[in-house]
Every structure is written in structure tokens, then in C-alpha cells.
Write a structure and sequence with these properties.
Blueprint lengths: L2 E2 L2 E6 L2 E6 L4 E6 L8 H13 L5 E8 L3 E8 L1 E3 L4 E4 L1 H20 L12 E4 L3 H17 L12 E3 L1 H19 L4
Antiparallel strand pairs: 1-8, 2-3, 4-6, 4-9, 5-6, 5-10, 7-8
């Protein structure tokens, strides 16, 4: 298991990744071309995303689409005799991808192989406003591509109560500022 103890930048494949201990990230990883996840398979992926919360990461939200997944999470701080630091994003993604690929292949009656593209995209969340934008994006993703009429109708969408409350607080603050003429 790799940990992060500050700001690091590394290259993996064709994408560069920047990690900072304690930061929150918006992650996207995609299925191999031609792969499409059934409702049951999306459930497996969502279960795996939620399984690591809170021991390995704090999951703020996730949406699993037929061919990709988005997660909003903060890696956990590991404080053991062997290691001290934040769990690396590459370990988070590797764990989710490997477990879900194995379970999906079992469900499909296949011996093995990946169902995911090697790369993943990550973006560090800059502030509360950016956090809210990411939550809204995840909630609206299934609606935007017409998989559901409303976010709550999609079978593979989960937003934490904490994330919902953070969004409400920012909206209330914006309303308060509008009402006082400051914004």
C-alpha cells in the first residue's frame, strides 16, 4: 500500500496525476471499449466503492453509468506502525477496479481479464463551490444522458448525507448573499 505525505506528482500511462495528502478528488474511470455494465454489475461496482468507506477513503458520492464511474472521495489517513500518510489514489482505484473486475467476470462466467481501461482521471477539488459542482454533476449525469428522468430514479447513484448538507450550506450562503445585495 502506498501513502502520500505531501504533494506528489507522478506519471502513469499517458496521464499525469497530482496528489496532496488530505485532498478530496473527483475520479473517473471507464470501461473497456465495447463493455457495458448491467444493473446488477453497476450494483457490484457501487458496493465496492462504498465498501472502502471510511477505512480506506471517505466517499462523498458515486455514480456508476453503463460504461464509466465517477467518485468524489477523500483518501483516508493511514497511521500504522508500518505506514503513515494518506492512501494513494492509485491504490484506491486499483482496489476498486480489481475487485469489481473479478466479481463481474464471475457473474458473466468468464475466467478473468479486465473490464476497465488502464487509465483513470482525477481532479483535485479546489473548494466548497467546486465540491458542489461535482456533486451536481454526478446527480445529473444519468438524467443528462436520458437513463433516468430524475436523479433518484437511477439505480447506481449515491450521495452521502454529509455531501448533501455541504451543498445545502453553500446554497443557503449564496441565498443569504443575494438577499443582502452582496452577490
Amino acid at each position: 500500500m502506498k501513502t502520500v505525505k505531501g504533494l506528489i506528482k507522478h506519471e502513469r500511462g499517458q496521464l499525469s496525476h497530482v496528489e496532496a495528502g488530505g485532498a478530496t478528488y473527483f475520479l473517473t474511470f471507464a470501461a473497456l471499449p465495447g463493455e457495458s455494465f448491467s444493473g446488477e454489475e453497476r450494483g457490484i461496482i457501487m458496493e465496492s466503492c462504498r465498501h472502502g468507506d471510511p477505512a480506506q477513503w471517505i466517499l462523498h458520492g458515486a455514480v456508476v453509468m453503463p460504461d464509466h464511474a465517477h467518485l468524489l472521495l477523500t483518501p483516508a489517513f493511514i497511521n500504522s506502525a508500518a505506514q503513515r500518510g494518506w492512501l494513494s489514489l492509485s491504490d484506491v482505484v486499483k482496489g476498486i477496479k480489481s475487485v469489481t473486475a473479478r466479481k463481474i467476470n464471475q457473474l458473466r462466467g468468464r475466467r478473468g481479464g479486465s473490464v476497465w481501461q488502464d487509465e483513470y482521471y482525477d481532479r483535485m477539488v479546489r473548494d466548497e463551490a467546486d465540491f458542489v459542482v461535482k456533486v451536481r454533476y454526478m446527480k445529473n449525469n444519468p438524467v443528462k444522458v436520458r437513463l433516468a428522468a430524475k436523479p433518484e430514479e437511477w439505480d447506481a447513484l449515491w450521495i452521502s448525507e454529509n455531501a448533501i448538507e455541504r451543498c445545502r450550506r453553500l446554497e443557503a450562503e449564496r441565498e443569504r448573499r443575494r438577499g443582502s445585495g452582496r452577490g
